[in-house]
TrEMBL record:
<keyword id="KW-0677">Repeat</keyword>
<dbReference type="InterPro" id="IPR011990">
    <property type="entry name" value="TPR-like_helical_dom_sf"/>
</dbReference>
<dbReference type="InterPro" id="IPR019734">
    <property type="entry name" value="TPR_rpt"/>
</dbReference>
<protein>
    <recommendedName>
        <fullName>Tetratricopeptide repeat protein</fullName>
    </recommendedName>
</protein>
<feature type="region of interest" description="Disordered">
    <location>
        <begin position="108"/>
        <end position="128"/>
    </location>
</feature>
<feature type="region of interest" description="Disordered">
    <location>
        <begin position="27"/>
        <end position="49"/>
    </location>
</feature>
<dbReference type="InterPro" id="IPR050498">
    <property type="entry name" value="Ycf3"/>
</dbReference>
<keyword id="KW-0802">TPR repeat</keyword>
Length: 443
């Protein structure tokens, strides 16, 4: 399987059950060729409208904290230019912001960090050795690599170097520098992200990197619970559970280890329960509520465990939030998930109706058209099946070519097995019993 196909499937699979989507955590732009809605012009922001704008704001703040809290404080400690001052570091700051906004579309995730003490407080730590200019450069170089495009030539080698840089920095901050728990959290999150992104660049073929990332997330949670008790009641704490869950999904995919889906679902549940209990954004104060994207993530994990009715409940709740926030495109994606869960649960007629609604609400989205083509074909409605396939191939931004690979549809897009079987029959133009032979046009 091509790397690009896996990466795109991973993102769509994060929101749409299709394993690891162009992570459609939140699509940033309208798909190519999609017509604008009449009477209004709008741009879809990542993640989404009111609820998602709050999440974007928190994610951007987290990215700044991740790069600035360690780099800025340590630079100040050695008399250097703190992050955010000076042309080069301002560029780095902008790149971190861009990375935070683009992270969902690359499956990267955004590292949440809890601000640590001031430079003066850090310098006053008992027996602490002040960081050198080399220490500062090491940390800044590592975070700058994370902010760069992971699809660029040589990205994997650069990310492996960044992982090594983070490892050296962790040894320094957990050793002679006696870094604060906040510093150690940020460095561990950075290394975990480097490891996840390395696995992504290989098309998910290095699950050992995801396993190592889980170990980093474990340590981050331990630090937050033991040494940073104030962080437990903030936005940062549940976000680590979400990131660990995503890493477990990568292990499940790479190792074909079903137990990892259960672990991912447990982590998503922990984060969701914390948000329901009123977790606040540690930087801006207001309660964020449940992130509807994470409801979709948990729904995907539950679907992999065969718990389609539970998954359906998550997708429906997410759809309501998106609709309430006026995020029509992400609502359509979540509605498509509802359709797949209904097919998985054996509620076929309801699944068809839900997919028809999703296709009507967002005709540029490919999944509903493909699912309807398969379902119509299996029911003997050959003409409508062909019409839906033609729409998938010619009227969507993504097109239909990848859906000819049934392994990709099953393991990346995560269609239910019955729908995959129906799609296989359509692609082979193998008619169900009693249907007439159509004039097929395989594209």
């Amino acid at each position: 399987m091509a790397q690009a196909s896996w990466a795109q499937g991973r993102v769509i699979g994060l929101l749409i059950p299709g394993r690891p989507m162009e992570p459609m955590l939140c699509p940033a732009t309208r798909p190519p060729g999609r017509p604008q809605r009449r009477g209004r012009q709008r741009r879809v922001l990542p993640p989404s409208a009111r609820c998602a704008r709050r999440w974007t704001k928190a994610a951007l703040a987290a990215a700044l904290a991740l790069g600035a809290a360690v780099g800025g404080r340590t630079a100040a400690a050695v008399g250097g230019d703190p992050l955010g001052q000076g042309p080069a570091l301002r560029r780095l700051r902008r790149s971190l912001l861009a990375a935070a906004a683009a992270a969902p579309a690359r499956g990267m995730g955004v590292a949440s960090a809890t601000p640590g003490p001031s430079p003066q407080e850090a310098a006053a730590a008992a027996g602490a050795v002040e960081p050198t200019a080399d220490d500062v450069a090491l940390v800044q170089r590592a975070f700058a690599t994370l902010a760069a495009d992971p699809a660029r030539p040589g990205a994997r080698e650069a990310l492996e170097a960044a992982e090594a840089d983070f490892t050296r920095a962790i040894a320094r901050w957990e050793g002679p520098l006696r870094g604060t728990p906040g510093d150690r959290v940020q460095l561990r999150l950075g290394r975990a992200q480097a490891r996840i992104t390395i696995n992504d660049t290989t098309g998910g073929k290095m699950p050992e990197k995801a396993e190592a990332a889980v170990e980093d997330f474990d340590e981050v949670l331990r630090l937050m619970e033991a040494d940073m008790s104030g962080a437990v009641g903030t936005f940062d704490y549940p976000s680590v559970y979400v990131r660990r869950a995503l890493a477990k999904e990568e292990i499940a995919y790479g190792r074909k280890d079903r137990s990892q889906w259960a672990g991912a679902a447990e982590d998503y549940t922990r984060a969701i329960d914390l948000w329901r209990d009123g977790i606040k954004d540690s930087r801006t104060g207001p309660q964020l509520g449940v992130n509807p994207m994470v409801l979709n993530f948990r729904g995907n994990a539950l679907s992999q465990l065969g718990r389609f009715e539970d998954a359906l409940a998550d997708y429906q709740e997410a759809t309501k939030i998106f609709v309430k926030d006026g995020e029509w495109q992400t609502a359509a994606l979540s509605r498509s998930n509802e359709g797949l869960a209904l097919f998985g649960a054996g509620r076929r007629s309801e699944g068809v109706a839900r997919m028809e609604l999703a296709a009507l609400k967002d005709p540029a989205m490919v999944d509903p058209h493909v699912a309807l083509a398969a379902a119509y074909w299996a029911s003997g409605d050959v003409g409508r099946a062909e019409e839906q396939w033609q729409a998938a191939c010619e009227k969507t931004g993504e097109g239909c070519s990848r859906y000819k690979d049934l392994d990709w549809v099953k393991n990346i897009r995560r269609f239910p097995s019955t729908l995959v079987s129906d799609l296989g029959g359509f692609l082979r133009r193998q008619l169900p019993t009693g249907a007439d032979q159509p004039g097929s046009r395989l594209r």
